[in-house]
């Protein structure tokens, strides 16, 4: 955080597209949305916390074969200058039925 327009910090707390999207998904799944901050310099480490510290990652990222081994990815929901913004739908790898 911050990464406007996807994750800006405001006086009221986190806001933006990624935050709103995850709040809405949590609502529809009957799950509580809670921000878990990730502050390490190496973004790859964010995937290591899936399943233990948090259930998903909502952030623009590149899908790599290594990341696909530990996380399921959704289709791109935003693109910018030859790059895609993608979010993990669910991680670690498990079926959507197990999330419900």
CATH class assignment: Alpha Beta
Radius of gyration: 13 Å
Assembly of the depicted chains: single chain
Poorly predicted parts? none
Report the span from N to C terminus: 28 Å
State which percent range the strand residues make up: 15-25%
Number of DSSP-assigned strands? 6
Write structural notes for this entry.
The chain has 100 residues and is α+β, with helices and mostly antiparallel strands. The chain has one domain (9-99): Periplasmic binding protein-like II (D-Maltodextrin-Binding Protein, domain 2, 3-Layer(aba) Sandwich). The chain has three helices and six strands. The chain has helices spanning 17-29, 65-68, 96-99, and strands at residues 9-10, 13-14, 72-73, 78-80, 83-85, 88-90. The strands form three sheets. It has a two-stranded antiparallel ribbon. β4 (78-80) and β5 (83-85) form a beta hairpin. The chain is globular, with a radius of gyration of 13 Å. The termini are far apart. The model has no long low-confidence stretch (mean pLDDT 76).
How is this structure best summarized?
This protein is α+β, with helices and mostly antiparallel strands and 100 residues long. It has three helices and six strands; from the N terminus they run ββααββββα.
Name a few traits of the molecule.
100 residues, alpha+beta, D-Maltodextrin-Binding Protein, domain 2, two-stranded antiparallel sheet, 3 helices, 21% helix
């Amino acid at each position: 955080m911050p990464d406007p327009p996807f994750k800006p910090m405001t006086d009221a707390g986190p806001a933006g597209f990624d935050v709103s999207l995850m709040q809405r998904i949590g609502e529809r799944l009957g799950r509580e949305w809670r921000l878990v901050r990730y502050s390490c310099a190496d973004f790859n480490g964010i995937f290591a916390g899936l399943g233990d510290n948090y259930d998903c990652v909502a952030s623009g990222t590149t899908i790599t074969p290594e990341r696909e081994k530990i996380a399921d990815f959704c289709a791109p929901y935003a693109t910018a200058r030859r790059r895609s913004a993608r979010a993990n739908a669910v991680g670690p790898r498990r079926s959507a039925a197990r999330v419900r």
